[in-house]
Write a structure and sequence with these properties.
It is a single chain. By secondary structure, this protein is mainly alpha-helical. Helices cover 48% and strands 6% of the residues. Strands 3-2-1-4-5 form a five-stranded parallel beta sheet, sandwiched between helices.
Length: 480
């Protein structure tokens, strides 16, 4: 039976053992939404590189739609579970046999057994289960070092310099396939956002292995301490940049975390940084995949705070030039230039801003999917709807990820050169994050009063003599 693979199923754990493989380039799928230009480049480059590597086994079909291509093939097809409800529904409607994916460490059946009758799904509980299940960073029945979580060691502010000063990431070299992809995308005149290349992420198996090796040897030893910090002129810092090859199926999560564990066991990387990285891959990433399916297709429409504001045009179109807030401008510039910023910029700058301003969570979720190189339908709902916007009422997180300018002043190097003052909540130079924090708490005080992690912050509203001024200014704020 012929195996149908999608553009995020490119690794050997998908295609090994299959003699007839089909990949489909769908013109309609490329046009369906306003994707980041570099994201489309990665998708096409990945599929074309795989077809070129295995010309006797892989056929690349160019078609108007997936449905037309599958019908025209007119043969029995099998496929691994895709990364969205819509794609799975299409495969079932067209009679394609869908088998469980092997792209993740934990199977759907095992996750369902773990989830049981839970109404709340705390990642820390799942993470402990994963560590034990796959024997990662364990000493018998106990976690290495006697602790499951070394977050407290990984929260240092940025150093007093413009760059972290660690070895550079592994960078790919574009080839003739990339050149043709760029030429074809130009000819299609697609409604994209963001800047074109150069390609900065691994998109072949060989490239992914090189990127993994470089990270583990050169960068993982420096990853932990400044994991949550942001430097304006160092967009990669010590991050792995492996989310793209992982989410395109070029690396298996277990080979990644075992490589990181080996670095710790051999004394080449400290435990705190290795544990933080393992938590990202074996904990959070797996958790996000399984909850996408477990919570159902309607989860992306959760809107517990009834936030309805549309995304501003400057945000949706990645035009940050007129933004005065240095942290917000830098984050949007990163998305525009690379299709990627690291987790703190996603959560505590972009997500924090969106929550304070009441942006529609579903629209924000779609923006993260289309604007990020590692964004796919399964990736973002738990990250955006649950973690970032707390729009699910607390199914995922115990509190909204909300902060004022003080946090950003501590964990970034932005505030020192910013036009706004993180200590001010009123006046012309009032920081939109500081003032926005108090304005959001004021709007949602009744709901947050019952949240034990937010109750103290809500009580702080009573000490603000200028709350009326903050409330009025933030309601009408147009400058960020």
């Amino acid at each position: 039976m012929t195996l149908l693979l999608f553009g995020d199923q490119l690794g050997p754990h998908f295609h090994t053992g299959h003699d007839e493989i089909v990949l489909i380039e769908s013109a309609t799928a490329l046009r369906r939404k306003r994707y980041h230009r570099q994201k489309l480049h990665l998708v096409l480059s990945g599929m074309r590189h795989l077809a070129a590597e295995f010309p006797d086994r892989v056929t690349l079909v160019r078609a108007n739609t997936y449905r037309e291509a599958i019908r025209d093939l007119n043969r029995p097809l099998t496929a691994y579970q895709p990364g969205s409800f819509a794609a799975q529904r299409m495969l079932c409607e067209l009679g394609v046999q869908v088998r469980p994916t092997n792209a993740f460490a934990l199977s759907r059946q095992e996750f369902t057994a773990w989830a049981g009758g839970r109404e709340r799904f705390l990642m820390e509980d799942f993470y402990h289960y994963q560590r034990i299940r796959f024997d990662v960073l364990m000493d018998g029945a106990d976690p290495v070092g006697g602790r499951w979580n070394f977050d407290a060691d990984n929260r240092e502010p940025p150093p007093k310099r413009t760059r972290l000063g660690v070895p550079a990431p592994w960078w790919p070299e574009e080839d003739a396939i990339d050149a043709q992809v760029r030429k074809d995308l130009d000819a299609m005149n697609l409604p994209t956002v963001g800047k074109d290349g150069p390609r900065r992420f691994a998109i072949t198996r060989a490239e992914a292995l090189s990127a993994l090796e470089t990270f583990v040897l050169d960068r993982l030893p420096h990853f932990g301490p400044h994991e949550d910090a942001v430097l304006t002129k160092d967009w990669t810092m010590a991050h792995s940049l492996l989310s793209v090859p992982l989410n395109h199926g070029l690396l298996h999560p277990l080979e990644v975390v075992y490589a990181a564990e080996d670095a710790y066991r051999s004394g080449d990387a400290p435990l705190a940084g290795v544990e933080g990285f393992v938590r990202q891959v074996l904990g959070w990433r797996e958790y996000v995949w399984h909850l996408y399916w477990h919570l159902g297709a309607e989860y992306r429409h959760c809107n517990d705070f009834d936030a309805k504001n549309p995304l501003p045009q400057w945000w949706a179109e990645l035009r940050p030039g007129a933004i005065r807030a240095a942290c917000l401008r830098t984050a949007l510039e990163g998305v525009r230039d690379h299709g990627w910023v690291h987790h703190i910029q996603r959560l505590m700058v972009l997500g924090n801003h969106a929550l304070q301003r009441g942006y529609d969570p579903a629209a924000l979720n779609d923006w993260f999917i289309t604007s990020f190189a590692d964004g796919f339908p399964w990736v973002m709902p738990v990250n955006v709807i649950g973690m970032s916007q707390h729009a699910d009422g607390g199914v995922i997180a115990t509190k909204p990820y909300l902060s004022g300018g003080a946090y950003l002043n501590r964990m970034t190097d932005h505030c020192g050169t910013c036009w706004f003052d993180p200590k001010r909540r009123t006046g012309e130079r009032a920081c939109p994050f500081t003032a926005g924090y108090w304005a959001w708490l004021d709007r949602n005080r009744e709901r947050m009063r019952g949240n034990h992690r937010m109750a103290r912050a809500v009580q702080g509203l009573h000490r603000l003599a200028d709350l009326d001024e903050v409330r009025e200014a933030e309601r009408d704020r147009e400058i960020f």
